[in-house]
Amino acid sequence: MPLGVVLEPVFFNCAIPFAEQRSETLADVGRSTKARVEAVYGTQQIGAGKADVYTLDDFLGPAQCAALMTLIDGACNPSALFDAEAFQGYRTSDSCNLSPYEPVVRQIDLALSGLLGIDPKHGEALQGQRYREGQQFKSHADFFYIDQPYWLDEKGRGGQRSWTAMIYLDAPEAGGATAFPHLGIQVSPKAGRLLAWNNMAEDGSPNSWTTHEGCPVEKGVKHIVTKWYRELPWS
Questions:
Q1: What is the pLDDT of residues 166-193, one digit of tens each?
Q2: What does each C-alpha distance from 113 to 55, 124, 151, 158, 191 come to in angstroms?
Q3: For residue range 2-52, what is the model confidence (pLDDT) as tens digits?
Q4: Half-sphere exposure of 215 (CA within 13 A, CB side)
Q5: Which of 7, 26, 6 has the alpha carbon at shortest distance from 203?
Q6: pTM
Q7: String of b and e for 195-221 (b: at least 16 CB within 10 Å)?
Q8: 217 and 136 in contact (C-beta within 8 Å)?
Q9: At the N or C end, where does the chain have fewer CB atoms within 10 A?
């Protein structure tokens, strides 16, 4: 996939029960990463006991945030979906995959892998996202639905996603929270704040409690970077 092309799955009802998609490898990653994250001073668990969701403030400093926002503003294009025709208006932000050869991107990749304890080879390209006023990403899940046509390609690129790590680079004047509607929680943007969650349940199957949305920005602009990790090395 070209570096500048960003495709995201959207929320489907999977015909294959999640219980039949259990992976012991993903269950092991979930347990080990959960233990590492909870051992970090300042980490807050907000998953309401139904999902492993955490926040950690000041994960990035102002200079790193500014450098990443400059890269995003210089490379963003309208965000894409796997099924854009059927879901017009579902995701209205701008996105780009950031080059791993940029020093600040390399720093973030290593910092996230160090925190989560996941081999960097399992991480997708760091994605930059920009939301202007009125832009949003409606309710969706980050894990893949294995009964969808895109799964054949994604299975060969590293398989199912395990953890998501998102970092806010700034905060709009109003709106732009990340909401987990099934959990009844919202996370407000704050420069440098990390939001991380396991897309799998304890048994290594997709966890529908992690369904989330990027709420509309009401005033100002929001920048974030997101890193997804796979069950196998990503290619």
A1: 999 999 999 999 999 999 999 999 999 9
A2: 16, 11, 25, 16, 20
A3: 333 344 444 456 667 777 789 999 999 999 999 999 999 999 999 989 999
A4: 17
A5: 26
A6: 0.89
A7: bbbbbbbeebbbbbbbbbbbbbbeebb
A8: yes
A9: C
